[in-house]
Design goal:
Length: 532
C-alpha cells in the first residue's frame, strides 16, 4: 500500500513539474522544472521496480546505507566546490578568464554564489547530514527513525543542491548572501529540513541509552535554529507560480538586519554548532580518549547558543542600521570569544595522554589542525567585530581570508578527518588504503589554507589602508583601480593556495575510492550495539 502511495505522489509531482516547465516564464524556472520532472520520473521507476519486494527486518541494524551515500556525496561536492573556487580565484587574478562566450553563465558573478553554496550547503550540508545520522544512531543504540525518511532527506538535499546550482548559472537568485536559492527551492529545502528534524528527533526518542550525549545537543540546536533562520529570512511572495522572480517581505534596513541575523547565524549554527557536534564525537573516537571535560562541553553549548544569535549586527557597522543595534552585535561578538575558546581547549585537551598520535596518526593531526583553525577564526571574528578594527577590515579581502580560514581550515579539515574515520567502518574495511596519502593530503591542505588566508590578510589590510590614505589637502591618494592592481600578486598566491587544497581533496577521493574497493573485513560492524 505504501509503495502505491509513493507512486501516486511521484507521478503527481512529475506531471505538475511538466506543466510548470510548459508555462515557465524564464529559462531558469523551466530548467528547474524539467530537473524535478526527471528526478520524480527516476524515483517513480525505482519504486515501481522494487514494489512488492519483501522488506527484510532491519530493526536490529544501523541504517548505514544512507550514510554511505552521504560520504560519497560529501567527497564529490567538496571536489566540485573547491574546483569552482579555484576557477573564480583565477578569474579574479586574471580577468581575461571571464571569457566573452561565457558571459551571463560562467562569469565570476554567476560562479561565485555557485562556489559558496557548493562548499557550504553541498559539501558541508552533506557532511552534517551524514555525521548526524551516524552519531545519533551510535549514541542512542537505535536504528534511524522513519524508515525511508533518511533516503528522502538525502535525495531531497541533492535535488536542492542541483536546483540551486542550475538556477545560479541561469540567473535565478535572491541576491542574498548564503540565501541565494529562489522561492520554490526554499520550499523544498524547508520540507527536507523538517524531515531531517523528524528523523533525528525520532531516533533520540527511541534511544536505548538514557543519556543524550553532548554531540547530539549541538546537532539538534543546529537543525532547529537553521530551520527558524531559513523560514524567517526567506519569507517572500512569488511574482508568478510559473517563474523564479519573487518579492521579499522585508525592505531597506529591516531586510539588511534580518539577512545578517540569518547570515551570521548560518555560520554560527550550520558551520559552527553542527561541526562542533562532529568534533565532540569523532575526535574522542579517533584519539581513543574521553572528552577532556564533559562539564565544559555543556557550558560551551549553552553559552554558544545563547550568545551567537545576537551577534549578526556586527556585519552592518557604519551603515544605516541604528547605532544601538550594531553596538549590541559587537558586544555579544566579543563575549562570544570566551565559550568558543572553551570549546577549542576542550577539543585539544581531549588528546591528553595521546599526544604521540600527532606524530603517528595523520587523521588525528587533521582534526587537531581543524580545532586550531576554529580557535583562530573565533578569535579573529570577535576582533573584527570591534568598530575600530571593522573600519579597516570591512569590504576588504581580510574578511575573505577570515571566512576561508574557518570554512576550509575548520569545516574542511574536520570533515576530511571524519571521512577518513567513517569510510573504512561504513564499508567494513580493515583500514584506509594509504595513510601516506592522508599525510600528503594533510600537508597540501594545510599549506594551501595558510597561503590562502595569509595572502588575503595581507591584501585586505593593504587595501583598507590604501582606501583611507589622504594627502595634505584631505583628498584620497589612491584611485580604486590602483588598489585593485596592487592586489594582483596576492590574488595569484590565493589561487595557488586554493589549487593545493583542491589537489589534496582529489587525493582524498582517490584514497577513499581505493579503500572502498579493498576486500571487506571478516566481521560486520553495523549491528545495533550498546551506545558508543
Amino acid at each position: 500500500m505504501w509503495d502505491y502511495l509513493k507512486l501516486a505522489g511521484l507521478g503527481l509531482v512529475a506531471v505538475c513539474a511538466a506543466i510548470a516547465a510548459n508555462y515557465a516564464r524564464d529559462l531558469a524556472y523551466q530548467v528547474n522544472a524539467l530537473t524535478v520532472m526527471l528526478a520524480a520520473g527516476i524515483a517513480f521507476l525505482w519504486v515501481l521496480r522494487t514494489a512488492g519486494d519483501p522488506r527484510p527486518n532491519l530493526r536490529h541494524e544501523y541504517f548505514d546505507s544512507v550514510i554511505r551515500y552521504g560520504a560519497i556525496a560529501t567527497a564529490f561536492w567538496g571536489a566540485v566546490g573547491f574546483l569552482v573556487g579555484v576557477v573564480i580565484a583565477l578569474q579574479l587574478a586574471f580577468p581575461q578568464l571571464n571569457f566573452e562566450w561565457a558571459q551571463g553563465y560562467l562569469n565570476f558573478g554567476r560562479l561565485r554564489p555557485l562556489h559558496t553554496s557548493a562548499v557550504i550547503f553541498a559539501f558541508g550540508g552533506n557532511a552534517l547530514i551524514m555525521s548526524s545520522f551516524y552519531i545519533v544512531q551510535r549514541t542512542s543504540a537505535a536504528r534511524l527513525f522513519g524508515g525511508s525518511l533518511g533516503w528522502f532527506v538525502f535525495w531531497g538535499w541533492q535535488l536542492v543542491i542541483v536546483l540551486a546550482a542550475t538556477g545560479y548559472v541561469l540567473g535565478a537568485t535572491q541576491g542574498k548572501e548564503y540565501a541565494e536559492p529562489v522561492w520554490y527551492v526554499d520550499i523544498l529545502l524547508t520540507a527536507v529540513w523538517v524531515a531531517f528534524l523528524i528523523a533525528f528527533m525520532g531516533t533520540l526518542m527511541r534511544r536505548k541509552e538514557p543519556h543524550i550525549y553532548v554531540a547530539n545537543w549541538f546537532l539538534l540546536s543546529m537543525i532547529l535554529t537553521v530551520a527558524m533562520l531559513h523560514i524567517v529570512n526567506n519569507a517572500a511572495i512569488p511574482v508568478s507560480i510559473f517563474g523564479s522572480a519573487q518579492v521579499q517581505l522585508y525592505a531597506g534596513v529591516q531586510d539588511a538586519m534580518v539577512q545578517w541575523w540569518y547570515g551570521h547565524n548560518a555560520v554560527g549554527f550550520f558551520l559552527t554548532a553542527g561541526f562542533l557536534g562532529m568534533m565532540y564525537y569523532f575526535v574522542p573516537k579517533q584519539a581513543e580518549r574521553p572528552v577532556y571535560s564533559y562539564k565544559l562541553s555543556i557550558i560551551h553549548f549553552w553559552a554558544l547558543i545563547f550568545l551567537y544569535i545576537w551577534a549578526g549586527p556586527h556585519h552592518l557597522h557604519y551603515t544605516a542600521l541604528p547605532d544601538w543595534a550594531s553596538t549590541l552585535g559587537m558586544v555579544f561578538s566579543v563575549i562570544l570569544w570566551m565559550p568558543s575558546w572553551g570549546g577549542m581547549i576542550n577539543g585539544l585537551m581531549t588528546l591528553s595522554g595521546a599526544w604521540d598520535k600527532l606524530r603517528t596518526d595523520p587523521i588525528i593531526r587533521m582534526m587537531v589542525v581543524s580545532i586550531g583553525f576554529y580557535g583562530m577564526s573565533t578569535f579573529e571574528g570577535p576582533m573584527m567585530s570591534i568598530r575600530a578594527v571593522n573600519s579597516l577590515s570591512h569590504y576588504t579581502d581580510w574578511t575573505i581570508g577570515h571566512v576561508h580560514s574557518g570554512a576550509l581550515g575548520w569545516n574542511g579539515m574536520i570533515t576530511f578527518g571524519v571521512l577518513y574515520y567513517l569510510v573504512p567502518r561504513l564499508w567494513n574495511r580493515e583500514g584506509l588504503y594509504s595513510l601516506k596519502l592522508v599525510s600528503w593530503h594533510f600537508w597540501l591542505a594545510t599549506i594551501g589554507i595558510v597561503l590562502y588566508a595569509s595572502s588575503m590578510w595581507v591584501t585586505g589590510i593593504m587595501e583598507g589602508l590604501m582606501w583611507r590614505e589622504v594627502d595634505a589637502n584631505g583628498f584620497l591618494v589612491n584611485a580604486f583601480a590602483d588598489t585593485v592592481a596592487a592586489k594582483f600578486p596576492m590574488y595569484v598566491v590565493r589561487a595557488l593556495g586554493g589549487l593545493m587544497f583542491l589537489v589534496g581533496a582529489l587525493i582524498m577521493c582517490w584514497n577513499l575510492w581505493m579503500t572502498v574497493r579493498a576486500q571487506p573485513a571478516r566481521v560486520t560492524q553495523n549491528a545495533v550495539v550498546p551506545a558508543e
